Amino acid sequence: MTKTQIYKFGGASVKDASAVQNLADILRNRLRNNFVIVVSAMGKTTNQLENILTLKLENLDYSKNSSILKSYHLDICSELFPDGHVIFPKIENYFILLHHELNKPISKDNYDEYYDRVIGFGELLSSRIVMEYLCSQNLLILWQDARELIRTDSDFRFAKVDWEKTRWNCQTQLKPKLEQFPVLTQGFIGADSAGRPTTLGREGSDFTAAILAASLDAGSVTIWKDVPGVLNADPKFFEDTKLFAELDYQQAAQMTYYGASVIHPKTIKPLANAGVPLFVKSFLNPDSDGTKIHKSAVQINIPTVVLKQNQILVSFKVTDFHFIEEDQIHEVYEQLKALKLRVNMLQVSAISISIVIDAQLFKLEKLLQNLQASFEIRYNEGLELLTILHADPVQTQSYLRGYDVLLNQSTRNTFQAVRRKIMS
């Protein structure tokens, strides 16, 4: 029997009716049994749902935002389906369920669990629309709720996979279906042992594809993007980018660790452990080769630039004239762990600890509150973290012109700088 193939389509590849039609065209001559399709929420739906949650948390009216989001999905359906199609009442029903969740009380204490109950509606809506459209194009396909497959712990918003139970679910529930038909499911979402919805971390649909691949002993995973493959820099921010024809797992993992947005950082490990190759291809040019990530790729050490925006630099200075010791570092990291904050850069001096973290709703406030008794704390928001792998010194300086550099450090193969645009 042929091994399962897994295709993952992100938000940009299902952002409107023409994108969904393009997805169908990509699948038309490729779709067969033992095929899993993983889809993200449409366009910027996740961002819009996060905005609704923020408004609710602040006791502000979110009805307009909800109406806009509903109209967005119904407008896409109107272009794809005839009047009276079954998809329209299904979309209506999803928004009834969404509003039922939004009518429940929210607070800072239950925000993460509340977030996971609400945010997955984006993937549920998207997967239903795409499945119904594929069926309307005579591409017979089954819909699968990913929450019945991906079993996790209860660490809401950053749930950890229960690999043994997830593999069992995939082998007993999903595999028999794949012998008959292709299956379409959602990225990003799972459920804990009590059946409560969980999420795998922002942009986690790539990770879902890797989880399913490892659990099904798949032959390959293909991620479809709006770029030609894995580039040495994000073309939205940098010119003259170069395409990697291939990467080994370690090189790809290093890029994702520092924030390369083309692949979710948790994606590589399960694929490398299972020996499953990962292809990154363009949905705009589906017949091009893209990038292959596998075990035996030849390394090409060209400068690779990763830019993370919306960063916060926080410095913790001791107040009693002692030097920084392991106890202080441990204290800071315990609070970061409790708040599920990942450190993107760390620098320790004689009397201070400086960290760079992603901006997350009310997390900085809690961090400062929990550590203010032990440290003098200063912070800067709205920063960028620039990371250059295999940096060229001359080229590096060009990325710093016109910026204030608040912090920088370099190792043998990596240069990092926290920068802020100089206002003219």
TrEMBL record:
It comes from the Bacteria. GO terms for cellular component: cytosol. This is Aspartokinase. Its EC number is 2.7.2.4. NCBIfam families: asp_kinases. Belongs to the aspartokinase family. InterPro entries: AceGlu_kinase-like_sf (IPR036393), Asp/Glu/Uridylate_kinase (IPR001048), Asp_kinase (IPR001341), AsparK_Bifunc_asparK/hSer_DH (IPR042199).
